[in-house]
Amino acid sequence: MKIILLDAKTLGSDIPLTVFSDMGEFVSYPTTSPEEAPGRVADADVIVTNKVKLRADILCHAPKLKLICVTATGYDNVDIDYCKEHGVAVCNVKGYSTECVAQLTISMALSLTNHLRVFDDYVKSGEYSKSGIQNKLTPTFNEVYGKTWGIVGLGNIGKRVADIAKVMGCRVLAYKRTPVKDYECVNLETLMRESDFISVHIPSSPETVGLISREMLSLMKERAILINVARGNVLDEQAVADAILDGSLYGFGCDVYSTEPFPENHPYSKLSKCDNVILTPHMAWGGYETRVRLVSEVAKNIKAFYKGEERNRVV
Length: 315
Description:
Blueprint: E1 2-5, H1 18-21, E2 25-28, H2 37-41, E3 46-49, H3 56-59, E4 67-70, H4 80-86, E5 89-91, H5 98-114, H6 116-124, H7 127-131, E6 148-152, H8 156-167, E7 171-175, E8 184-185, H9 188-194, E9 197-200, H10 214-217, E10 225-228, H11 237-245, E11 251-254, E12 277-279, H12 288-306
Parallel strand pairs: 1-2, 1-3, 3-4, 4-5, 6-7, 6-9, 7-8, 9-10, 10-11, 11-12
């Protein structure tokens, strides 16, 4: 069995990959361009990939291919129709990053609420030492306790954030196409109007692209904070940037973008000096323990496949 890993850099350099070499011949590439992909997959039995797009014009160069393992939950970078037609199995990994993504969601919300960047800069710049005053209480910050937290998308991550928000004393509202028991499910307009914090955890689909629109943003409270750890295109990115710049959106945290990395002409490029904005490089899923768990799950998927078992199969 020959296992090809196409983009090892996306998994980080600090976690072991020996679990793959223990199963057979293992070749790992730091990154793979579309031009390099056909040659690299040519004699693969198993392809492991995170971000490389495996379309029909690449997969057709891999006649021995039996299995594609995506090191993520989403698998929209794989041509599923081609795989079905040619008998290639596809596996993803579910639930591996729930704790880590929830952790960043809460961290962003708390940092923005407490203006940590502003207060940190105040001390480190020397202004605090020169002030002669023991404290600084502006900009005004608020308690989280007693606020309303809106969850857009109630999957594993959304539910985990809801649990943490409840522990912090928040009322939790949820937007889900099919309402469920044990959660206060409301329509999106109500959630946008009533929430002090809104975190987005909904997958990208034709129905959800642009879901958080300019109109939805206009419904938000004056001091509400928006967090996106889902997919970039679920938000109208230009509308979000405009809302921050004109002061109608109080705070914004984001880890995902419609184009990654986003180019210099992206709407968020204009937000680089905004103290009320936190932008991170799609790292919410990538804690050390999270990535170790992810690689272990991928290895289990490969072993299960060769035992004739179905595990995390999407095709």
